[in-house]
């Protein structure tokens, strides 16, 4: 186990945004910008899962779009919202890629939109993984900085939850209150 968690509280979408910002600022030169762009263009894959030689794994294919996952995580950690409210907010934030403001340098081709059915599907997976599957891992996190006002998952800070909790109450709430699309 690591002795310090340098990325504590830094979601993948924020890291991607910061890399885009560093590239656009040009402070490290063109060659470094090219390397950083290749990092952005590389598929994020699951850790410690063996694959076949030709098989490419995709974390997003398994857990859902990082934009929706990080959005849900922020709404839970910062505000403690129930799943139906997160689905409502996610639909208003993501149903039309042409609406709203995007971060500078965010490629137009990568600006997604999601239907209510997609939001519901990925929210169920988020809830199942966040509440039932991953808490035991967070209970043993090494120390790290809190860098976002959106909350942190350290058991010594913002997020305190039992390692053996169930997602059933949140999944039931989705079934009852979030339309299937």
UniProtKB/TrEMBL annotation:
Gene Ontology molecular function terms on file: NAD+ synthase (glutamine-hydrolyzing) activity
Protein's name according to its UniProt entry: NAD synthetase
Protein's UniProt keywords contain Protein transport: no
Gene name of the record: nadE
Organism listed in the record: Mycobacterium tuberculosis
Region (Disordered), start-end ranges: 141-160
E.C. numbers: 6.3.5.1
Top-tier EC class: ligase
Keyword terms, alphabetized: Ligase
